[in-house]
Amino acid sequence: MHFASYTAPGGQEELALTFGDPSASTRLLVLPAWFDEANKLRHFSVELMRALERAGVASVLPDLPGCNESLAPLAAHDLASWRSAALAASQAYGCTHVLAIRAGVNLAPDLPGWAYAPLAGKAALRALLRARVVAAKEAGRSESSEALLQTGKNEGLALGGYHLGAEMVAALARAELPAHGLHTLTPADFDAAGLWLRAEPDHDGAQAEALAARIVQDVQG
Q1: Which end of the chain is more exposed for a tag (fewer CB within 10 A), N or C?
Q2: Origin, by domain of life (predicted)?
C-alpha cells in the first residue's frame, strides 16, 4: 500500500491510495461509495484492494475533491467536477478498468469494469434528506424533504455532516442511474448483504475476497 497523489482539474493535488505493481497489466480505478456509505465501506474497499494485489491486479482509490484528506471545499464541487477528477485519476495512473461502488457509478469514466450495487445520485440524495428529516424530528424540529431540497438547490445544504453546494444538490436531484457498460454485481451474488445497511461501520472479509476473485476471473477471461 502506498499513498500517492494526482492533480484534479483546477490544479488541486488530491491523495490516492495505491496497491500493487505499477507495471501490472491490469490496474483498477476504485470509485468509492459516497457520504455516510463511504465510512461504512472504506474498510471493505481497502481489503478488496489488498486481495486484488495478492492476485496480481493493481488498483488505485482516489480521494474526490472535498472528501477525506482533500483540502478543497466540498461546497465548491459538483458532479461534473467529481467526474473530471475521477477521469484525471484514471489517466494519471493508467487505469485499464474501473470498479464503481454504490453511487461511485455516477462518476465512472469510459472503461470496462464493474458496478457494485450501483446507486443513482438522486437516490443517494434522498437518503441524506431522509436522515436529516428523521434527525430533526428526534430533536423536536419539523423539516420536510421537499423544503430542504428547494433550499439546497438555491443555497446549498448541510446533510449528514457534509455541506453540499447548490450546484451539487441540483445535479444530484436529477441524477438517474447512468447508462454504462459495466458489469453489475451485488452482495447477493456472493451470498452476502450490503455493509451500508448496517448501523455502524463494519467489515466482511469473505465478501471482499469473493468480489476480488470475481474481478480477477473476469479479467483473466
Answers
A1: C
A2: Bacteria
